[in-house]
Amino acid sequence: MIDSNETIEEFLVQHASDVEEAIRKAASTEILPRWRRLTAHEIDQKTGPHDLVTDADRKAELYLTEELVALLPGSVVVGEEAVHANPASYEAIRGDAPVWIIDPVDGTRQFVRGEAGFCTLVALALGGTVLASWTYAPARDRLATAQRGKGAHLDGERLFAGVPEPGRDLRVATSHPDYTTDEQKHALLGLRTEGVAPRSCGSAGLEYLAIARGESDATAFSWEAAWDHAAGLLLVEEAGGAHLTLTGEPFRITGGNALPFTAARDAATARRIAALLAGGG
């Protein structure tokens, strides 16, 4: 079993391209053939009408689980659909083994509607620290990658988030109201202020990519599920950005975060958004 960051780095040197190939293969065999071709019996609700799952989600996660564990013996998987079936499996994210964190189709609502705004998210973590991540948008054939301490890239080109333009409203993607408590709704009201332009988010993974590319300025999210955040947060960090919870601490994939939290293009913007959230409306 791998037990140090150094050996994870060695694994990535040898097998990062194999991980990419597995992700692309999952998309080409299980996701894209069902895009815009889903039938009613291939779509189910989990917790409500905004929380959907399809055969593409299930089959892509199964494929990635098998392939990634085979690439890294001794590793485990925390996948969205497996955790839905067995919530106790989420505890593996707090264990000692290397863990693959998988969201097979992030943006399932967009996928079901036949839109292109969905992606596959994979992160590799050890001891609660995300060490590498992959964000693949199959309908656009774009792949963003990040490795801790080695930068973020989109289709091989280095990403730099930069800083927001002076004098322009901050573009902030926020949680859908259906996924917020009354207390969190109150916190998000803090963004209804001069100089900030909040909007409802789409795929979390693509929102993080937009920040890493400098196309969006920040997020304000109110849920902790690691499969939605692990890959994107590392991407933002390695592009020069930052993330903070309401207590001013970085977001932890192992949980226990003060919510909502923010990820932003730079540390100053993260502090500003976190302060607004803490102040509420």
SSE ordering: HEEHEHEHEEEEEEHEHEHEEH
Averaging pLDDT over every residue, what do you get? 93
Which structural category do the helix and sheet elements fall into? alpha+beta
What's the gyration radius in Å? 18 Å
CATH C-level class of the largest domain is Alpha Beta
What can be said about this structure in brief?
This protein is α+β, with helices and mostly antiparallel strands and 281 residues long. The protein has helices spanning 5-31, 55-71, 80-85, 108-112, 182-188, 204-212, 226-238, 267-279; strands at residues 43-48, 51-54, 76-79, 99-106, 119-126, 129-137, 142-147, 151-154, 157-158, 170-174, 196-200, 218-220, 242-244, 262-264.
Give an overview of the whole structure:
The chain is α+β, with helices and mostly antiparallel strands and about 280 residues long. It folds into two domains: about 5-155, Fructose-1,6-Bisphosphatase, subunit A, domain 1 (Fructose-1,6-Bisphosphatase, Chain A, domain 1); about 170-280, D-Maltodextrin-Binding Protein, domain 2 (3-Layer(aba) Sandwich), CATH 3.40.190.80. The chain has helices at about 5-30, 55-70, 80-85, 110, 180-190, 205-210, 225-240, 265-280, and strands at about 45-50, 50-55, 75-80, 100-105, 120-125, 130-135, 140-145, 150-155, 155-160, 170-175, 195-200, 220, 240-245, 260-265. The mean pLDDT is about 95. It holds the Pfam family Inositol_P. Its EC number is 3.1.3.25. This is inositol-phosphate phosphatase.
